[in-house]
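#struct-help
A.M.: can someone run this one for me? Single chain, 450 residues.
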Amino acid sequence: MTDDNLTELQRHIESLVEEGGVDELQAVLGRLHPSDIAALFPRLGRLEQNFIWDLLTDEVSSEVLVELEEPAQEELLDQLSEGEIGRLVDELESDDAADVIGTLDDDKAQKVLETLDDESRRDMHRLLDYDEETAGGIMALEVAAVKETDNVRQAVNELRDLVENEGVEDIYNVYIISEDGILRGVLNLRQFILAPPDTPVSELMEGDIVSVPTSMDQEEVAVIVRKYDLVSLPVVDDYNRLVGRITIDDIVDVLAEEAEEDISIIAGTRDEEPGERSTFKVFRERFPWLLTGLAGGLVAATIMNYFEATLVQIIALAFFVPVIMAMGGSTAIQSSSIVVRGLATGEIEIRDLIPRIYREIRVALLNGAVLGIILALIVSFWLSEVQLGFLIGIILLLNICIASLLGASVPIIMKKMGIDPALAMGPFVTTMNDIIGLLLYLGLAMLFLT
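D.P.: on it. Structure tokens below:
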């Protein structure tokens, strides 16, 4: 639904609430997808929100709750009682239910868990024990699996029971497990549907199956799903026992989340939500990154102060400080963005450090040589100083090479250290590049003068 459509719908609902048109409002809500209601919800006032919420069934309310952006979801959860949240959680698949409970504070989460039946409570504890950014943290426990000793007739009956009694939805794959729950393979659904009822499922299964451990990072899981074009991925424990599945909708969420996180890290707003209303929270997220930039600027100012005598002797050097710093920063961002993207998609791995540096240095030498010649000619004709033009051209070439080296290597080194490589594209690499660029520029200029 477009923004204009949402605005029009918002006005219509506000007028219906004001008139008390319950029947017409229910009819309007009944035609909307839960995600559209969730997009509309934050636009409405508290009165309209409460009015709408009371008209939704638990099934629809639970889906709306999951689709809400984090600030709006937290605000709504604060208003609901533990019993109301427990009812909504009962309507959700286990992965979504665990996400909702995970956003609550410990005391309220415990009270919500106490409203669930024993089996659901155990399931929630299992999922909440996993790191939320791992395969275990995003998987659902509802999974279609049959035993390797079953025939087709028995497998069909088991699947019917799973759908009717265990809440398994959207069956993309049927997995084959041993008596001990160890993953053996996946059913070829076409053969499964066409096979005679007495055919053992072990004859129909494909044993070469891609699976992931519960501890695998969600970004790596997304790379595997993308690589093998999967719509569903089984998750296993340390003993290769099937414990859950990850579906394509979860992977789409992961990709969006990781992309948003990387962009936020680059901009220095890592944990800030677009819908956040608290001025203090926004300040708290942005200030440390701006403080880092300020510190880097002060270091750069100190360097320029140290080389004051050099700048006084050739004041023209100061004209080209922005050029040198800007070209170095642009080069570093180009190199690091490619490497960060490659690390995220799996096209670049940690072992590719040396080949990647070699590639970037070759490109930097070519770019630096061409740009250095252009700048040298401009300076020579502009200031009638051929030697100074030659010096600044050489400095630009060296600065581009160093910036390219930093941009290519720092993300991979961070990845190896277990740090998000997107940090390399934020204030860290730009500040470091400015400092190194200034030292190189003014240091070589001082040597030139002496």
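A.M.: thanks! The chain has three domains: 3-133, 145-247, 279-449.
D.P.: also worth noting: The chain is about 70% helix and 5% strand.
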